[in-house]
Write a structure and sequence with these properties.
276 residues; alpha/beta; Rossmann fold; seven-stranded parallel beta sheet; 10 helices; 7 strands; 54% helix
Amino acid sequence: MDRSGSKRVLITGAASGLGKALALKYARQGHHVAIVDLNDERGAETLVQLKLSGVDAFYQRCDVRKMEDVEQAVAATKKRWGGIDILINNAGVAAGGPFDWVSSEDWEWVMDINFFGVLRGCQASVPVMKEQGSGHLVNIASMAGLLNPPGMSNYNVSKAAVVSLSETLVAELQPWGIGVTCVCPSFFKTNLGESMRSPDKTTAAKLDKLVEGSSDLSADDIATMIYDAVEANQFLVMPHEKARQAWDFKCANLDDHLKAQHRLAQQVKDQAQPAD
């Protein structure tokens, strides 16, 4: 961390949704914030809001599918502030559909963003953090990566890979003074549905319904939980109570968990409709 006490924070997918909420949370706490995204218009709007907090902030276009973009974002952060204290790998997309309907191209697309985007962020920032002897990675996964609901195979795997990577790194990087936090939220109001890619037109409708029906936690609430978890060097964050209960149920009795999954799988079978 720099001598003024302000942390240097880089957030991917930060022009909207949870990424924006995190950027504003860190700015309100007096930290320097670099936001990267593919939506330049939303990025510019978010940057204006960040600067109203009186902190130093900048926006840079970044496609997490391109290693050179991610490396440039990390390099720009280091050049501006002399290092990077927190990298939040937040950029992600939605996907799903019956397993045998999902194309190889759709698998590659969601893995390239949801998993390899996170991996690239870690690869680009860890050498800088090792050189500093400090730092913290925040990887946004999903409860889907822990519970693996049917009809979402490619999304589940992309997020489960983030959980696995994070659990590996939290141990491996500890001797270097680098912390890791893995976040597994359930449904909350955000614009994730804009990115939905599925061969089943009911998948997007289900996601929209679940997102719109979620009211217990907002993006701002989850951003605060993540902020507090980083401060406490907490590894796993499961913000939603019902999702935590589902995880506890799975851990306690896998057979009963799978029986419940079978019922959900029957719904996927009965309701799936090919996209136009």
